[in-house]
Structure formats: structure tokens, C-alpha cells
Design a protein that fits this description.
- There is one protein chain.
- The chain is mainly alpha-helical and about 80 residues long.
- The chain has one domain.
- The protein is built from 3 helices and no strands.
- Helix 1 packs across helix 2.
- It is elongated and about 55 Å long.
């Protein structure tokens, strides 16, 4: 079931939305729905990536400080070459 919502857009952004919608032969609503779906999908993928990263760092016993220290060590080694 669809539900109607009112959204305010800056004039310039709305012009861009309308230009793209016209070029792609679809309605403003279709374009905005697709943009919302794409944003949600992208956000979900990044959350999963961060969850995996957190899990791996916990298992490996890494901390932010230890990663920074390792980066500094590697940078020092590269300078000596």
C-alpha cells in the first residue's frame, strides 16, 4: 500500500530531480523512490561491512591505537628505503 508524503526540496535540487526524471522518462516520484531505495541499500551494505570489521578486530585483539601504531611503523620503514 502506497502512502503519500510531503517533502520540501531546495529549488535547485528539485530542478535537478525533474531534469533527470524527464531525461529518464519517469515521474519525479519514481525517481525519488528509487533514490531512497538505493540510499537504504547502500547504508545497509556499509553497516554490514562495519559489523564484519568490528568482529574481525575484536577477534584479532586490535584496537584503534594498535592500528595507528602499525601504520606509523610501516610509514617509518618506507622512509628508510
Amino acid at each position: 500500500m502506497n502512502q503519500t508524503v510531503n517533502i520540501s526540496f531546495e529549488k535547485g535540487l528539485l530542478k535537478e530531480i525533474d531534469k533527470i526524471a524527464k531525461r529518464e522518462h519517469r515521474s519525479r516520484s519514481e525517481l525519488i523512490r528509487e533514490a531512497a531505495r538505493a540510499y537504504i541499500e547502500k547504508k545497509s551494505k556499509w553497516e554490514k561491512i562495519f559489523e564484519i570489521g568490528s568482529s574481525l578486530t575484536q577477534r584479532a585483539g586490535l584496537t584503534e591505537a594498535s592500528v595507528i601504531d602499525e601504520i606509523k611503523t610501516i610509514r617509518k620503514q618506507k622512509k628508510t628505503f
